[in-house]
Amino acid sequence: MGLFHRRNTGDDQTRAPFSVKLPRQPSSLAPEDVYTNADLDPTVDPAQRTWGYGTWFSFWIAASLDPAFWSTGASLIPLGLTVSNAIGIVVLGNVVISIPILLNAQPGANLRIPFPVAARASMGYYFSYFAIISRAFLSLIWFGVETYNGGLAMTQFLRAIWPSYADIPNRLAESAGITTRDMCSYFLFWLVQLPFFFLNPNQLRWAFLLKTVVVPATMLATMGALIHSAGGSGPLFSQPNTVHGKDFSLAWLTGFAALQGNWSTLSVNSSDFSRYSKSPRAVWSQGLAIPISALFVTICGILAASASIPVYGLAVEDAYWMPFDIMWQWNNRAAIAFAALAWMLAGIAANITANSISSANDFVSLAPRYINLTRGQLLTAVLGGWACAPWKILASSGTFLTFVSGYAIFLGPFAGILTADYFLVKRKAYHVPELYDPRGIYRYSGGCNWRAAVTLVLTVTPNLPGLIHAINPDIYIGNIQWWYAPGFITGYVPAVLVFWLLNVVFPHHATLLAEAVTAEDVDLSVPPALDDYGVKSEHDKDAYEMNSVSVHA
């Protein structure tokens, strides 16, 4: 496959010539007439499962330590909250969102399957595409936004080397939403990211480890220098609440929802990464890594912004919340260059962890004949980096970003359905080879599990008025905004309950197994037949299923 072939370390295979159509993988679990490729297959090879406790900590540090999280306080304190309230929201919000992340990582950790495959068990083979496309859409948007922030870091790096770079005249119209200088920086950073997309996910742990060392040191140095110059933490820490009563509650819930929204996508597709874990136990370390990494970067950002007020003679409302605003005040070219390199590394690692690999898995499942992980990441780079035009999004009034953030009303139910199905309905008993067969037991009715569809309707609908009001505050919706305000959890928790109850009352017997059947448990040389249920029969069961008994009557 030439340039688009992902090499496995230690695998001495001859590269095949490039072709648009990917070669059929002999290891596929899918039937002969169903096209798939190895990037969708379970990671049964122990050499592919290298993520231990340390990797998971560095993974979340790689995901969290970026400019967007550094400026978290800018979305909380201006709401009228104190620093202590902001920190409390950060801790609670990340602890709460870590629960579905950990729970939905279990199919990947135990069965070694990615999210697009795991979603078929609960939603149906074809209805799962709705969740897959929704998740991919958000990945593209956030990939572009993260790349834009990386471009700002590139501007700092280039002006440190060539000071005249900061004075490049703008030749673009104001309606473009970006200047000539920043467009050049954006393009260069976009190019710098590309080589990382050719790495195997197991090789990325070294990039995560490098970021774990470099970026925290840069954050501490930036924060420490400002606090030293200010002679203390600055005025934000002594600022009282400016909202009270109902307004205080609404501000608190708004911030709480925003913190959950940051990771709502990973709460759905965490199996994309947990499939590489050394053991199922290792993924539980995320329960500490998520809130700790988020708390660290948020405190650094708040302290730096607060100290910037007296250091640079700013009004409280003009505090520098973005690290690049602070760096514009520096004259030490070496410090600017090293800090900019650290922030570029932060942007690349965050884009890989939260966006490119996730959307690549989605694209692989949608077009396995033509797309593998590498091609999927490159497609993300093109669509997310250019088709989404993030500079236009960020230069707008924020309405579109409000909609994207509010899209958690869909992601919450998606995550809830996945959790309920794996733990409460199927009780961890998935038949992995059947997940790769569109005519298998997870076809349900025409490829759609109507229980999942009904759950989405019942749990998304109550949140739609709140989303409409968030986009256009002039539309009055009454007290129902209190249901929308907490964000993710008002979709997640009801979806868990509704989906479970629907399956209790209307069980789909064909998918209820006594225990899980993994890729290692099945002798694929025995072709199954179809029974009256339209699913694989019990004939030659001992040969076909090594470890499971279907309980449909």
TrEMBL record:
A Pfam family assignment: Transp_cyt_pur
Sequence segments annotated as region (Disordered): 1-29
Keyword Disulfide bond attributed: no
PANTHER family: NCS1 FAMILY PURINE/PYRIMIDINE TRANSPORTER, PURINE-URACIL PERMEASE NCS1
Native organism taxonomy: Eukaryota, Fungi, Dikarya, Basidiomycota, Pucciniomycotina
Keyword flag Cell division: no
Subcellular locations according to the entry: Membrane
Keyword annotations: Membrane, Transmembrane, Transmembrane helix
Descriptive protein name: Uncharacterized protein
Main location: membrane
Transmembrane portions of the chain: 51-70, 76-103, 124-145, 185-201, 208-230, 288-315, 335-357, 400-425, 452-471, 483-506
A GO cellular-component term linked to this record: plasma membrane
Family membership: Belongs to the purine-cytosine permease (2.A.39) family.
Membrane topology term: Multi-pass membrane protein
GO molecular function term, any single one: nucleobase transmembrane transporter activity
Gene3D superfamilies linked: Hydantoin permease
InterPro entries: Pur-cyt_permease, Uracil/uridine/allantoin_perm
Span of the signal peptide: none
